[in-house]
Amino acid sequence: MINQLQDFSNDARNRWEELTSNQPANSPARFTLGYYEMGFSLVNAKPSKDLPELQTRLTEAGRTMPMPWHPFWQPQEMEYKPHPYKDFVETWLGKPSDTGEINDSLHGDFWRASRDGKLYTIRPYLEDHREHFTHGEVIEVNLPIWRIAEGLMFASRFAETFEEVDEIAIHCRFTGLDGRRLDCFDEMNRVMLLGLGLGPPKHVSHRKEITLNKQVSLRQAQDNLPQVIHTLLGGLYERFGRFDFTLKRVQGQLQKMRSVTY
Q1: Among 110, 113, 128, CA closest to 161
Q2: Which of 28, 108, 186, 224 is buried deepest, with most CB atoms within 10 A?
Q3: What is the pLDDT of residues 231-253, one digit of tens each?
Q4: What is the helix, strand, coil percentage profile of the chain, to 5?
Q5: How high is the pLDDT of residue 136?
Q6: How far apart are the first and last CA of the chain?
Q7: What is the CA radius of gyration of the chain?
Q8: Where do the H-state alpha helices sit in 108-205?
């Protein structure tokens, strides 16, 4: 199942590259500083009979999400609404303006869904759009937890619209990591959490990218989300000088995420 999910993710990424191919080589639309992608596959899902039924399932899953702008959210503006393409439902938020250019990669997300319960999304790093960070140099220490959790929560809700789904395959890929360091949005906690500001940065990646794959039961994804995220993302944090990535951190961040009022 992981191999099938990777093939699906590769095809979806190729579609995104096709959509951005008419943009300049240094265009924000191409996520030139790096990006992360997520793919999910509902194991043993009986395919939707058609794309309208798939769209209904996606809408239902999104309706039960606690956060409105999750990775598979559906904009209502006509030019950005999810639409059929071949045998998929997909949307690209980076559609060029009237000038034919995209000025902000932060709003350039692309996602795709298949009738047999596969999901894919590609997104730029929020860190590359924060004024007090040098773009391309930082991974915020807690954001991967939030982003992967949001994606897996949606996949779990999506699974509930299918019968006989008892497992979810997960594919994550982070690119543009070489030379990035772990940092923290919260200025007051930077030194306490990371030891930053006391000499050279301690947690710097010297690898360009990492791919993480895992298959978990639907019950694990729903009832033991902190443990799933902690196990899945451990390899990412090891790239940053063996940062002490604890289950307690994941539990705290997920509790904080669920307490946010939108």
Answers
A1: 113
A2: 108
A3: 999 999 999 987 889 999 999 99
A4: 40, 20, 40
A5: 93
A6: 35
A7: 18
A8: 143-159, 190-194
